[in-house]
Each structure stands twice: as structure tokens, then as C-alpha cells.
Amino acid sequence: MKLCTTTGALEPYTASAPETVRCFEGTGFRLLDFNFYRVRQKNSPFLSEEWKEWIQSICAAGDQLGVSFVQAHSPDGNCMADPEERKQLIFATNRCIHACALMGIPNLVVHPGTAEGAGYDRFLTENSAYFQALYPAMEEYGVNVLIENSAEQNMPNRPFFFTGQEMKDFLDHMNHPLLHACWDTGHANMRGMDQYESMTVLGQHLRAVHIQDNMGAADEHLAPMMGTCDMDEILTALLDIGFSGPFTFEADNLLLKGGGWPHRRKVWREDGKLQTPSLELARKSIGLLYEIGKFLLSAYDCYEY
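^ that's the sequence the OP posted. Answer follows.
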């Protein structure tokens, strides 16, 4: 397996996506998971008429650095919200699928919608319609869309995919050759669940992973071995199902940023100089993340450069 990490880890430190990509120079990572999560914000170049040129500038930065984009995360949004929100989210996600094709990215992680207090029937109906609205773009551009597991701490009182079996049931219900799964180890660790069972139930549907850790109570996005997640369980499951995709980190909180989620640093004074780590420190933490990943994969004799 090869190591990969999300561009979201350094995104808060930069003014543009190409600059973010260039900041990974010297960290060890040659594969990147592109973060489209915030592209629906006001004045986003992704929503402009020149969005393809924006994508080209990102690809050019990657080529210059010698890195490849191998998976991506779709925009933030909720397909079970009001009709206008749903319409805008479908538009942005379909554009993401097109962007993935332009970037050579085979897999796009897309969150299902949620609604507090909604029963499973409504969840199934509205999410089925949402993913079906993505089928034409998926089929035109040959991009897989991957559903992701979550945890009650993130989605209280809302139906969501919490186990591999729940995800597989939905995938079997949808029965589309380009609809598969991404497993998030941090979300599962918050539930204290049997991750091996869920990952092996997904089997060949498991096309991507989000490797992150926490102390079991909040979605902290720490590096492995900084929390309580059993990485032996994760590596064994991946090897037992013959997983060949990148070992992708979503551990973007090794150094907690001021105002960050899920924990916010106490602000003693508004002009404090130490609220947010420097970019250079953040880049060094990404380098450490690579070394942690190399250690994990090497221990199971599956590290590929």
C-alpha cells in the first residue's frame, strides 16, 4: 500500500489550492486526497465559469511537485435539508465528479444526508434519490462515489451508516457498479465497535479509507498511535480483504488550529500570538504523519513507496 493524505490538513494555512498542494513538498507524501469540502463557500473559484482553469492550476501544481491525486472528498452539504440546498449540493457534487475525471481521481467520498428525528424509511428514500441524481455524471466520467460511515457523536438522533453491514445493505439496495464505500477508522473508534468485522463485511466494496485516530469521545482527527484506535485490527482487515488502494490519512489535527473542530483552544486575549501553529510546524507534522504511516505499513510488510 502507498501512503496518501488529505490536502485539507494544510488548506487553512494557504490562500489558494495550488499553494496548498505546493506546501506538501518535502513531507514525503507523493499521493494526495483532494479536499473539495469547502468549495461551496462564497466566491469559490469552483463555482465560477472558470472552474476548469482552477482545476488545471491545481493539477499543474501537482505535476510540478511530482504528486498524484488519487481520491477526493465531496463538498459539505445535506441532501435531506430544504429543496434549494439539495439542488445546490447535487450541482456541486456532480461538478466534483467531473473535476475528479479531469484530475485522474477514481474515487470521490460523498456523505449521505441526515435529518434529526427522521426514520430510516425517509433516510433511505431521500438518500437513494440523491445518489441516483449523481449516476449520470458517475457513468459519463467513470468515477466511483463512496459512502462513508459515521458515529452517533457526529450525528446524534439521526439515521446514518454506522456499521459495515448497514453500508453494504444500502449498496446492495442501490446496486450500482460505481457506488462503493470508504471506511473512517476514527468514526468507528468513537463507537468502540468491531472494525475488523465491518471492514471485512464490506469486502470488495471498500475502495478507500480515512485513517485517523481519537480518544474515543470526539472526532479529533489525530494521527494513529496518538489515540486509542487499534491499528493492528485495521491493517489485518485491509490485508485480509486484499485492499490495494492507498492508505489515506485524514489526520489533520496533529496540531490543533485556533478555532478548530472539534475542540477550540481557550482564548485568553484576542491578540494572542499562539492560537494557531505556524505553517512550518504544520508541514513538519505532516512529515511525522508520513513516518508514522511508513512504520505501520512496514510492520505488516505492505509499505510501498
